[in-house]
Amino acid sequence: MSRRVSSLRDFVALRRRDGAGNRVLQIARDVTDRRRAVQGALAEIRQPPILDRLTAEDFRGLDEVVVEQSGEDREYAIVLARLTHAAARAKGFDRQIVDAALRLDTLLPGEDPAHERDRLLRDAYAVAQRGGYVRGGRIALGRLGHRALEAADTERARLLLRQQLDLGDEEEDTVAEVDAALALGDLLRREGDRRAAQALFRRAGRSAQRLDHHRGIAEALVRQIELMPRDTDLETLAALQRQASEAARRTVDLGLQSRIVLSLAETLRRNGKRDESIVQLEHGLAIARQIGDLALEGRCLAALAEGERGRGRLAAAADHERTLVDLEERLGNRGAAGGWATRLGSSLLALDAPGEAVDAFGRALSLAAGAGDIRLEQRALGGLGVAQSLLDRPSEALQNLLKALDLARRTVDHRHEAQWLGSIGQALWRFDQPEDAVRALNDGVAAARRVDDTELQANLLTLLGQIHAARGQAPRAREFYGRALELNRRLGQSEEQVVLLSALAGLAADTGQVGSAIALSEQALQIATLAGDQVAGVRLHGRLARLAQRRNDTALALDHLRKAVALAEALDHPALLGRALQHLATVQHAFGDPAAAAGYRRALAHAADNGDEAGEALMQLNLGLLLSTNGHREEGVRFLRQASARAAGLGAAGAPLVERAEAAIAAAGPERTAESGPKTANVHHQPPPENDVVVGDDGANRTDSVYREATLPPL
After folding, report:
1. Confidence label for 710 from pLDDT (cuts 50, 70 and 90)
2. Of 209, 290, 461, 559, which has the maximum CB count within 10 A?
């Protein structure tokens, strides 16, 4: 009430207290308070004492009060708008008739069974046309056109919207014409006239830019982008999407912002800019949560999970997948929730968290049962079996894998039949049943061949090669590795080719064919380099260094190791760099390189900085051995004692190092006098016996990914 009185006073301040506009306000108040009927009010304002005194300025003031009261007292605003419209018609003021009709149209309910709004707008257009009121006529046509679209009367909508745009030049466009151009363009695009639609979207964009209408700019750019040719340069596409995003962020339309963010993120992903794509998706996720749009949140999370997986951040991908399981279950989408639970289980397996993977696959199994989805149940059972096999639970693992195999056969799912046969073979091998494992894997290869699944065939053949290699059957292992390599070459799988060539090189080295091992390793290195796989490059340089050592080619071995260190440094991969530094220093020590002591010190500092206690103990031991045998006993013994203490803290794993360090301390004998030599040294002068070097030819390299066990994904 206080707001209404304030409005009344504001209006009266503009007019004399007994003005006609003031009287209209009082009549509208009486109608709202049920002291007067609408028909009586309409009749009263047509009386000469009121009508004759109404001026254009009064109509402007009445419209201002209608606008102000539309949010405070809608009923009062509607009554006042009706009285204003009736007074304008009775007065014969064409411009005021049109403006009042347009204002009343915005206040009436959307449901219009009596078609009052249509009549108002048609009448407004007719009056505007008669009076030459172009702006009012265009607005009326636009609203009629949009109502026709809502009623699915596309032919009428097209005519009305086109007429609205043709009534004036583009330079005279207002926000209404921007909306009309967008709506007409959408209509023409659905009908297949892409060129005309694009022309309208460009007009909307230019007009919106001139009007500083940010929503219109964003909407027009989005539509122009959608109509661009598929071979459009991705940088160009991303630049336009960024413009649209910037415009959208200046509006309050969070839904529009989120749509643009998702499309920009996809363009960036396609252009290989994963990090930028992730940033956009995180912004989209924040918007989705802000507006409570669960469907949009799900789309952002799914894209984030895929993006994080693509840049190797499996833990982050798993976090998003876990959230998706909860989200889809909350939405009642059991099948979708189960699908994400199986993906979560696979991610957890890759993260070496089989216990958590069991929980994820167990949840997927429960959701599959609730959804009645047999295929999902099959995937959940298979994943559960794989996870249980990694937990050394053979009975449960094989039981669930066999159930998955049975479901695949019952549903004639040959592809997954091959998959589960492979997983069963892998589990049997793990549980020390090699003959049964080989039979299952051979059956899996045959099944994969029937469905032409080349990738699965290659995986199964790799595992067969590994089983035969472990059993000392080198010819059979070489045969299976070779077949797998050929299939992966056909598929263009560079990572798998590197693994298989390294495995073949290992077989050659084990049988004394060092030249062949070097050639195969160099092939693997060439493929890894072309593929940009620097991690494999580091490890392969290490392998080639060990092979060069076997040929007593010191210079080549050191060259490979220095390249390994340089690659690891460029990668910013502390663990890999630590191993490369340790290997380099050890080889320098073995061949009497004066740089060995400095190499050990660098490797030792790196291990200490990165919390590698085992590497730190090993480097202390090796450096102590070096110094204690080249005339720097005191410093050498100090490092040996530090190595012994550090290794003791490692428990059983450090026992061999403790034993070696204590033996070296005893062998160093009693403390020498100061004249015996300096207390510190950076180099040694006599090459140590090779058996004094603790790090051997193989080290921990069998755990490198180059030599990893071939594993099959559960899905």
Report:
1. very low
2. 461
| Cα–Cα nearest to 15, from 48, 42, 50 | 50
Residue 284 token pair: 């989209």
Q: Return the DSSP state at 687.
A: P
Weakest mean pLDDT among 52-61, 130-139, 265-274, 687-696: 687-696
What SS3 string covers 171-198?
HHCCHHHHHHHHHHHHHHHHCCCHHHHH
Question: Which alpha helices (H) appear in 271-393, and where do they start and end?
Answer: 274-291, 294-310, 314-330, 334-350, 354-371, 374-390
- Give 668's contacts (C-beta < 8 A, 6+ positions apart): 628, 633, 636, 637, 640
Burial of 686 (0-12, 13-18, 19+ CB in 10 A): exposed
Contact of 535 with 576, CB cutoff 8 Å = yes
DSSP state of 620: H
SS3 percent helix, strand, coil of the chain, rounded to 5, is: 80, 0, 20
CB 588 within 8 A of CB 688: no
Please compute the mean of the pLDDT values over residues 94-122 and round it to a whole number. 88
CA 572 to chain centre: 23
Lookup result for tokens 């490198």: 704
Q: 237-252 pLDDT, tens per residue?
A: 889 989 998 898 888 8
How many angstroms separate the Cα of 464 from the Cα of each of 437, 442, 445? 9, 8, 10
Distance, CA of 64 to CA of 192 (rounded, Å): 44
Nearest to residue 548, comparing CAs of 578, 521, 524, 525? 521
In Å, how far are 296, 581, 592 from 688, measured between CA atoms? 66, 19, 7
Report how far residue 492's alpha carbon sits from residue 512's, in angstroms, rounded to the nearest whole number: 30
Tell me the average pLDDT across 48-65.
90
Task: Tell me how crowded residue 695 is: count the other CB atoms within 10 A of its CB.
Answer: 21
**Lowest-confidence segment of 461-475, 574-588, 653-667, 695-709 by average pLDDT:** 695-709
Model confidence, pTM: 0.63
Helix axes 354-371, 314-330, angle to 10 degrees: 30
- With 0-12 / 13-18 / 19 or more C-beta atoms within 10 angstroms meaning exposed / middle / buried, residue 230 is exposed
Instruction: Assign residue 129 a region (left: φ > 0; alpha: ψ between -120 and 50; beta: otherwise).
Output: alpha
Residues in the chain: 715
pLDDT band at 697 (very low <50, low <70, confident <90, very high): very low
Q: Which of the pair, 698 or 45, is modelled with greater confidence?
A: 45
In the predicted structure, residue 229 carries a pLDDT above the cut 80: yes
Residue 671 pLDDT: 56
pLDDT, one tens digit per residue, over 373-418 is 999 999 999 999 999 999 999 999 999 999 999 999 999 888 899 9
Three-state DSSP class for 489? helix
Q: How many CB atoms lie within 10 A of CB 266?
A: 18
| Rounded Cα–Cα distance for residues 333 and 386 (Å) | 26
Whether 425 and 463 have beta carbons less than 8 Å apart is answered as: yes
Tokens of 683: 């180099």
Q: Distance between CA 444 and CA 463 in Å, rounded?
A: 11
* Mean pLDDT of the residues in the chain: 87
Residue 637 token pair: 């013994």
- Separation CA 286–CA 278 (nearest Å): 12
Burial 282-300 (b: 16+ CB within 10 A, else e): ebbbebbeeeebeebbbbb
d(CA 111, CA 124): 20
Q: What long-range pairs does 465-473 form, CB within 8 A, spacing at least 24? A: 465/500, 465/503, 465/710, 466/503, 466/709, 466/710, 467/429, 467/434, 467/437, 467/438, 467/441, 469/503, 469/506, 469/507, 471/434
Residue 695 pLDDT > 80: no
| Residue whose structure tokens are 């809608």 | 74
